[in-house]
Amino acid sequence: MKNILALFFIDYTKLRSAKYISLIGLFIIGFSILSIIVGRDVNIRGDFTVFWQAGTNYINGVSLYSQIGGAERYIYPPFAAMCFRLIALFSLHKAAALFCFCNLLFWITIIYYTQKIILQLAPQSTHVKQALFIGFILSFRYFLYHIWFIQMNELVLLLSLASVYNHLIKKDHYAIPLIVVATFIKIIPLFILVWILSKSNYKNYRRAAIYSVICVIIPLLFRGFHQGIIDLQEYYVTFIQPFKEGRVEPELQNYGLSAALYKVFSYTADGDKYHYIITILPSATINLIYKCIIICLLIAFVGMLVYSRLKKASVSLFEISFILLFTHLVSGITWEYHLVSLFFVTSVMALDYFNSKNKNRVVFYLLGFLLFFNLIIGGDTVGYYLYYKSCGYSLLTWLLLLLCIYNIAGYIKQRKEVLN
User: Fold this and answer.
1) Distance between CA atoms of 129 and 143, rounded to whole angstroms?
2) Contact between 347 and 353 (Cβ < 8 Å)
3) CA 212 to CA 129: how far, in whole Å?
4) How far apart are the C-alpha atoms of 350 and 336, rounded to whole Å?
């Protein structure tokens, strides 16, 4: 076990030793081979093509949101397209291979920052490496999907965790720009930004405002003011406004809470095909159920912010874990490869398991079973019919909701222990 742990969790103080130099060399070779294989298989309808084409369209001065170039719809902010200019400097397959390699490096760095955050907030905890290893196993599927489809969520998660860590060690001059950039690449980290600002002073509010303005202004300068304004308008009209007005995309493998409810409580072609529709409810009723659940989660989120602010309470691992889960549930689009943040969540849960008493471990066994079940279920293991049926029932969504409840309970229990 010790050798396995050492393979994944490098002692960064010993990187100059021959053992670690050899290990790093093997990783680089393996990552390079895998990246070339993945990059070679990218096609025009792949997700990475959307990012590459957005960068190309940004360079060429054409619309970002009209699917020019044959790619599927682009739903990221204009600032992200400006960043994607870097990958558009290469051919599609070379860019895909390079970014796949970066994602593999991001994976290691995510492990590193998760470890740093846990050690910062729970310095007396034992079994940290074992908890990280369990988190690695239980989140492996989502990272594998993410790397195979060459997504941007690892980059966003890495920036978010780096921001959280820098905030914890009181280096907000790094934390704020990191989380603002993450938010302007993909809007979901906004909740992490709100969390950091809730614990901050006026100086951080000013920093956040300045960096936000910069992230809006720079794309305008590169694209030209007229086209830049059009980009912002098209982003709002094609993505923000529809979801703001109640748009739902109940696709088979969308695990956002709204999608999950509509899949089981309204008619869809996939639901009819795979027989996972529970009953048909009016849209107004489904919306009410969704709003009630989200409001409850929002109350928990705001409660954590207010309590921490008023009581000047120390940061809890549970609140960070809760926010990462909440962002997936509230998002209108949550695919499986978006769930790379489950590495942090499951690592925290595993650490809590090691620190708990035996009589209180029933909840861990239940959640662990559900996590492992979702880890192994797939077309190659249970057949595509049962796999798609599980997607239709949105088993992952309900697991995310259970994990939210677990983290809320863990947060409350931890605060009570501090008061006592």
Assistant:
1) 19
2) no
3) 37
4) 21
Chain position carrying tokens 């007396």: 124
Number of neighbouring beta carbons within 10 Å of residue 66? 12
Instruction: Report pLDDT digits (tens) over 221-234.
Output: 999 999 999 999 99
Q: What is the reported pTM?
A: 0.93
Residue 71 confidence class, pLDDT cut points 50, 70, 90 = low
Sign of CA dihedral 169, 175, 178, 180: positive
Report residue 90 as tokens: 């290469």
Identify whether the C-beta of residue 361 lies closer than 8 Å to the C-beta of residue 353: yes
Measured between alpha carbons, how far is 109 from 116 in angstroms, rounded to an integer? 10
Run of H or E residues at 162: helix 153-168
Specify whether the CB–CB gap between 122 and 132 falls below 8 A: no
Q: Is the CB of residue 44 less than 8 Å from the CB of residue 146? A: no
Please report the sign of the dihedral spanned by the C-alpha atoms of residue 196, residue 199, residue 204, residue 209. Answer: positive
Question: Concatenated DSSP letters for 79-122?
Answer: HHHHHHHHHHTS-HHHHHHHHHHHHHHHHHHHHHHHHHHHHHH-
Residue 207 has pLDDT above 90, yes or no: yes
334/412 Cα distance (integer angstroms): 28
Measured between alpha carbons, how far is residue 57 from residues 54, 76, 84, 226 in Å? Answer: 5, 13, 10, 16
In 3-state terms the chain splits into helix, strand, coil percentages (rounded to 5) of: 75, 0, 25
* 111 closest CA partner among 128, 134, 136: 136
Domain layout of the chain by residue ranges? 248-420
Give the span between the Cα atoms of 25 and 326, in whole angstroms. 38
Task: Calculate the alpha carbon distances from 49 to 73, 74, 281, 337 in Å.
Answer: 10, 10, 38, 16
Angle formed by the axes of helices 317-330 and 190-198, nearest 10°: 150
